[in-house]
Design goal:
- With 199 residues, the chain is an all-alpha fold.
- The chain has 2 domains: 1-110, Orthogonal Bundle (Rna Polymerase Sigma Factor, Chain: A); 120-199, Arc Repressor Mutant, subunit A (Orthogonal Bundle).
- It has helices at 6-14, 18-26, 30-52, 55-71, 83-109, 112-117, 122-143, 147-158, 163-170, 174-195.
- The chain is globular.
C-alpha cells in the first residue's frame, strides 16, 4: 500500500500529541522526529544559549541533544512529565556536559607558569575558596531537591528564564511553576541552614 504524500503525512503528524509522536519516533519515523524538533527546537536552543552564552556552542548542544533523543526515544516515560520537559532535560544535561568539557579543555591548555602568574593576592584566594565552598553547598542543596523543583530552579537561576517562560517551556500553569520554585527554595534554605550549623 503506497504511503501518503509527504505534505499530507506531515500535516497528519502535526495533529498528533507529542506522546504519540514519540511512539512513532521509537519506530524510526524520521518525519515524526522532525515534527518534534519543529515544536521544541526553539525552546531547546533558547535554553542551550542561555546556559552556554555562545551561539555556536548552543547549536552543538541542541544537535547533540536531539541526536541523543533520536537514539533514546524509547526512554521517554509519560509518567515523568511532558515531552517538552524531557527534551529540555536532555538539553540541560548536554549543556552541563559541554561546559565541563570546555572547562577541562581550558584547564589542560593552561601552562603551570601562566597559572602561577594568574594567582591573585592572598585575600582574593581566601574569598575565592569561600565562594567555591558556598557554590558547592548550593549545588548540593539543588541536587537533593525532587526533580520537579530542581528543574524549575535550574531553569530560573542557571538558565535565566522567567516564571512565565518556564511555564511555557514546561507546559505548566504559572502557579505550578511558582509553587515548585517556592517549595524548592524553602527546602534549599533548610538544607543550607543545616549544612552551616544555623538554626
Amino acid at each position: 500500500m503506497p504511503r501518503a504524500p509527504v505534505r499530507i503525512r506531515t500535516r497528519g503528524l502535526r495533529r498528533l500529541a507529542d506522546e504519540e509522536l514519540i511512539e512513532q519516533v521509537r519506530e524510526g519515523d524520521t518525519m515524526a522526529f522532525e515534527v518534534i524538533f519543529d515544536r521544541h527546537g526553539d525552546a531547546a536552543f533558547s535554553l542551550a544559549y542561555r546556559m552556554c552564552g555562545r551561539r555556536g556552542l548552543a547549536e552543538d548542544v541542541v544537535q547533540e541533544a536531539f541526536l541523543s533523543l533520536w537514539r533514546s526515544g524509547v526512554r521517554y516515560e509519560r509518567s515523568r512529565g511532558s515531552v517538552r520537559a524531557w527534551v529540555l532535560g536532555i538539553v540541560r544535561n548536554k549543556a552541563i556536559d559541554t561546559f565541563r568539557r570546555e572547562t577541562a579543555k581550558a584547564g589542560r591548555d593552561v601552562h603551570d607558569d601562566t597559572a602561577i602568574e594568574g594567582i591573585p593576592a592572598r585575600v582574593r584566594i581566601d574569598g575565592e575558596v569561600e565562594r567555591r565552598e558556598d557554590s558547592e553547598r548550593v549545588r548540593g542543596a539543588v541536587a537533593e531537591l525532587p526533580s520537579e523543583q530542581r528543574h524549575v530552579i535550574e531553569l530560573a537561576y542557571f538558565g535565566g528564564f522567567t516564571h512565565s517562560q518556564i511555564a511555557d517551556l514546561l507546559e505548566l500553569p504559572a502557579g505550578t511553576v511558582k509553587g515548585r520554585m517556592r517549595l524548592g527554595l524553602q527546602r534549599m534554605r533548610l538544607s543550607l541552614d543545616d549544612s552551616t550549623g544555623m538554626t
